[in-house]
Design the sequence.
């Protein structure tokens, strides 16, 4: 492979194959194993777990396990109703494009959802008339309610990220539940909401910030219930982006709940985004792409533009970002990326991509460099001028 750098311009020859950018292996958000694409699952009683391929026997020590599934549907991806057996849904990627919940648990006991990515749907995870449910270490985004607990008791939401939803976590008619150590941020309306029929729930150890993106009339949290606790009564409360250290932190809503151990959640640091070199690729080649190394503690979304036209607006999970260049016509294109975190800090990069009909196969590197030298130098000059004028 030969790499020439001319005025910041990157030229790559890959032996008799497509040209592409030098790719950094994406950082993984979680340790999910390879998922298996499957169709929606509907379980109506304990015996259905085996019918749908779950392993285990439904006991506390060996629960039925639905794991490593990749479901994309316009229906609810996984429904579990009327079960008492112990079960878990783990390491799954689930997305619904319809007006359905992505996961729906109704009238169940002893269920777990863990290490899953839940996308879209009316509610990402909806739990109704249930008890002893654990939702743990999962990403929930792009839904109306990220997590919805309705008439549910003795359940726990722990170490989850709920962001880029209309509301992050909503409790309605729900009692004796715990919301612990979650990141609830960057939701369009309330981050956390407890209705008037909620009581005796414990909420602490969470990072709750920059919610109410759509309006100043929405809050990080609102509590209209009774006897809900926003600290552990000893020393642990929550971190809030709107906390004033000179005042007691009072949660919005009719309950007038207080977090006695509130702390300030701050983020005034731009996301990490490693800039890329400009790039030359062959027209009609396939597989060319750009990959940016990117990271932030509170990722939210990114925008990719080609020649000032938005190509992609997508949720950002905090890892590397890749975009294909296969759609580009011949010519010089300006590819811009802007990434935003939950606190609306941003970082950006601009890459010039030149697409030209070079013949690079079968004639050898030496001849390619000689034959294309004048053209490459000319392109480098053009790109340098573009940068100076922009």
Sequence:
């Amino acid at each position: 492979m030969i790499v020439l750098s001319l005025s910041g311009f990157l030229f790559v020859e890959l032996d008799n194959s497509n040209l592409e950018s030098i790719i950094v292996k994406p950082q993984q958000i979680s340790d999910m194993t390879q998922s298996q694409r499957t169709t929606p699952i509907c379980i109506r009683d304990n015996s259905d777990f085996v019918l749908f391929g779950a392993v285990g026997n439904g006991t506390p020590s060996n629960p039925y396990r639905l794991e490593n599934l990749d479901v994309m549907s316009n229906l609810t991806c996984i429904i579990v109703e009327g079960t008492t057996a112990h079960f878990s849904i783990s390491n799954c990627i689930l997305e619904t494009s319809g007006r359905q919940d992505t996961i729906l648990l109704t009238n169940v006991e002893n269920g777990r959802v863990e290490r899953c990515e839940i996308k879209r749907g009316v509610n990402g995870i909806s739990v109704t008339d249930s008890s002893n449910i654990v939702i743990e270490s999962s990403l929930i985004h792009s839904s109306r309610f990220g997590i919805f607990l309705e008439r549910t008791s003795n359940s726990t939401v722990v170490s989850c990220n709920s962001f880029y939803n209309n509301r992050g976590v909503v409790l309605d008619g729900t009692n004796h539940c715990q919301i612990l150590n979650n990141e609830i941020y960057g939701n369009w309306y309330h981050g956390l909401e407890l209705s008037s029929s909620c009581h005796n729930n414990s909420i602490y150890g969470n990072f709750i910030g920059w919610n109410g993106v759509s309006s100043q009339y929405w809050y990080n949290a609102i509590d209209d219930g009774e006897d809900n606790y926003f600290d552990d009564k000893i020393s642990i409360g929550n971190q809030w982006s709107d906390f004033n250290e000179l005042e007691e932190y009072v949660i919005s809503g009719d309950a007038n709940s207080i977090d006695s151990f509130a702390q300030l959640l701050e983020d005034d640091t731009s996301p990490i985004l490693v800039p890329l070199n400009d790039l030359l690729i062959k027209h009609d080649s396939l597989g060319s792409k750009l990959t940016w190394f990117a990271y932030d503690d509170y990722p939210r979304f990114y925008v990719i533009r080609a020649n000032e036209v938005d190509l992609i607006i997508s949720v950002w999970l905090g890892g590397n970002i890749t975009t294909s260049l296969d759609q580009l016509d011949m010519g010089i294109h300006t590819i811009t990326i802007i990434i935003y975190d939950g606190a609306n800090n941003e970082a950006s990069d601009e890459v010039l991509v030149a697409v030209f009909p070079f013949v690079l196969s079968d004639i050898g590197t030496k001849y390619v460099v000689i034959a294309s030298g004048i053209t490459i130098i000319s392109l480098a000059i053009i790109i340098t001028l573009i940068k100076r004028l922009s």
